[in-house]
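[Solved] Which block belongs to which protein?

Original post:
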Amino acid sequence: MALKIRMSRGGAKKRPYYRIVVADSRMPRDGRFIERVGIYNPLLPKDNTERLQLELDRIKHWLEKGAKPSDRVARFLDEAGMWKRKERNNPQKALPGAKAQERLAAKQEAEEAAKEAEKAAAEEAPAEEAPAEEAPTEEAPAEEAPAEEAPAEEAPDEEAPAEEAPAEEAPAEEAEKED
C-alpha cells in the first residue's frame, strides 16, 4: 500500500480549510484516510500560529513507514525542518544562451564606456564653462544699467548734440594745428 501525506479539502465555497492526512494514494482527495496529522487554514494571516498545525511526532512515524508527502505538505515539513524538499525548478534553464550572453556582455561594456566618456567630458566641461558662466552674469547687469540710465539721459541728449559738435571740431582743429 502506497501511503501519501496530503491535504484534504473542507470548508465552504471560497472558504477553504484543509486537513493534513495520511491516506492510501489510491483513495480520492477528500475520501477515506488513515489518520489526520494536522490542519491548514489559508484564510488566517501568515503570522498566526493557528494557520498551520502539525503533529510532528505522528508525521515522523508515517515518514518512517514510507509515506511520501505531497508538494504542499513537503513545503510545510521543510519549514518545520522534518523533510528536505528537492528543488523542482531548474534555474539554469532560465539563463539565456551563449550568444545572447555575449551580446549582453558587449552591451554592458558599451554602456560602461559611454559612462566613462560622459564623466571625462563632465570633468573637462566645468573648467571651461565656469568662466563662460561668470561672463554673462557680469554682462547682464551692464546691459541693464544703460537701459535704466536711458530715461535720465533723455534730457541731456538734447544738449549732447551741441556738446558733440564742438567735441568733433576740437579734434579736427588739433589735427589742423599739427599740420
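(Second protein starts here: sequence line, then its C-alpha cells.)
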Amino acid sequence: MITVLLFAQLQEEARTATLTINEDVLTVNQLKNQLINAYQLYQVNECMIAINEEYALDIDEIKPGDTVAVIPPVSGG
C-alpha cells in the first residue's frame, strides 16, 4: 500500500488529505496519471512530488510502504 498526502487545493478537490493506492510498484508518472483519472486532479502535473521526504522525478519508482507527498506550486506576493 502506498500512502499519498495531498495539500492545499488538491485536498479540497479530492475531499481528503490522504489517499491509499494498492499497487506493487509504479512510477511517479503513473501515479500522476492515476490521480488525474480517478480524482480529476489535473493540477498534479504542475506539482512537486516527494517520496519518503525526498523530491522525485517522473521516472522514479514508488514501492509499497512509501509515503508520497504531492506539493502544489506556491504563489506569493
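Accepted answer:
You had them paired correctly. Confirming on the second one: Strands lie at 2-6, 18-21, 26-27, 48-51, 54-56, 61-62, 67-71.
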